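Quick start: read one record
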Amino acid sequence: MKKVLLVVLEDRMQDEISSYLQSNQYICKKVEGFKAALKAIKEELFDVIIVDCKFVEVYGWGLCQEINTTTSSSVLALFEHKPQDDLTTRLLGEVDDFIVQPFCKEELLIRMEALLRKKAWKHRLEINGLIWDEARYEMSYKDKQIKLTPKEFTMIGYLMRHPNQVFARDTLIQLIWGLDSDTEGRTIDSHVRNIREKVRQSGFPIDDYYQTVWGVGYKWVNASIS
């Protein structure tokens, strides 16, 4: 079942949306406040996150930025009116789709399912012959399979899905091992060395893509997703 996070300030609307989506085989989690929302996206994986634009008015842009930085969740915004002012125009750049209130729940479901179909292709990345396939949990280059451990597979996937974005070691630890992990930065470095060596053996020029940002962490550069 698909998981949805509801970040909506009005309890009545939150309950109505949750009840309707649950009747359509979705798992819904409701949160109140910025800290609760931030905690939820760092501890759980959601297919869709529904954000009320009123939440942004009250708490600012931190949540939307955190969603885009640390998750691959699709974001659907709820607007009170058509995007015209600076706030709603800026929010459009942070979300995948929006719907204007009042709206029927059927339209909300249709838009969510469209986002999920659009998202499906992101589970398979191909970059100059290097394929990262999340559905099959496989990585290959020119039909030659590259055997990675689960954490190695997850780590390179994060970077490939966010080209040119620098991931600090601490961020990678939180994303892959969890917030309460006592894993050290040296473990990240060890995993990166292993990933590079395994991919390098396949013939792919990994060192041109998986780069070190000295004193900070790592990034994937010059990657065009097809």
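The chain has a mean pLDDT of 82.
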